[in-house]
Amino acid sequence: MFSGTEPAIDRAKRDPQAMQQRVLIVEDDRDIAQLVELHLKDLGCQCDIARDGESGLQKALKNGYDLIILDIMLPDVDGMEICREVRSEKNYTPILMLTSRSEEIDRVLGLELGADDYLTKPFSIREFIARVKAIFRRVEALKDESSRDEDADEIVRAALRIDRVNRKVTISGKKVDLTPREYDLLLLFAAHPGRTYTREQLLNTVWGPQFQGYDHTVNSHINRLRAKIEADIARPKYIRTAWGVGYRFAEGEELTDD
């Protein structure tokens, strides 16, 4: 699931004493940056701080972090652009966005660009820590859910091929461009063919429990994913609807049906 510079979570699997997540804090407010750093260190995290967008972007692209805490309003390069650039790279790093804006459109835009969570200033430290812990738990849960064989680097289902090392998807050899959420959804489904997921289960696993009630988000992502991988979205081959329950990935002879 990860590539490029090795994240600390993966290093810890080889060396239990290396269980120290690396976090990049991109925040131009010195007081907020130091407060966030203080509480992350209490969790055992190793922190780097960037106080402008340009240096934050360079650090994010050159170093292997387990989490990026990203302010939206930054000098030089704003947080939205940093999020966009980070998500264009092979290396997948969770992003928690911070902003003083409260408009829903900013929140939705950040999440659509690939942010994993979003906090509006001012926020409580208790909520911030809870969100950080939830992101780390979700990353591990996705790893566990997305593979029956921990050593498998790719999943092949009929004409669909998922390269987990580089987070690439192809259909009959043609590259399919997916957003981070679409990729995570597809990987979860394809790794467990036949298993039915409710919308609530998908929200909890891919987005996190704080998104309960956003069932329309699951539906819209499923529709966009189908439009990219299905030859006929009216008769989906891969992602099937379990009526009255949720969605499942086709299995067995379903994948060979014309």
Report on the structure:
The chain has 258 residues and is of the alpha/beta class. It folds into two domains: 138 residues, Response regulator (Rossmann fold, 3-Layer(aba) Sandwich), CATH 3.40.50; 102 residues, Winged helix-like DNA-binding domain superfamily/Winged helix DNA-binding domain (Arc Repressor Mutant, subunit A, Orthogonal Bundle). 41% of the residues lie in helices and 19% in strands. It has nine helices and twelve strands. The protein has a five-stranded parallel β-sheet, sandwiched between helices. A hairpin with a 2-residue loop joins strand 8 and strand 9. Helix 3 packs parallel to helix 4, helix 7 crosses helix 9 and helix 8 packs across helix 9. The chain is elongated, with a radius of gyration of 19 Å. The N terminus is likely disordered.
Low-confidence regions? 1-19
Per CATH, the superfamily of the largest domain is Response regulator
The termini sit apart by: 31 Å
CATH architecture of the largest domain, by name, is 3-Layer(aba) Sandwich
Average pLDDT reading:
82
Q: In what range is the share of β-strand residues? A: 15-25%
Q: Largest sheet at a glance?
A: 5 strands, parallel
Helix amount, in percent? Answer: 40-55%
Top CATH class of the largest domain: Alpha Beta
Tell the overall outline: elongated
> Helix/strand-derived class?
alpha/beta
Query: How many helical stretches?
Result: 9
Q: What is the quaternary state of this protein?
A: single chain
Q: Cα-atom Rg, whole angstroms?
A: 19 Å
Widest β-sheet, arrangement of strands: 2-1-3-4-5
Can you count the beta strands? 12
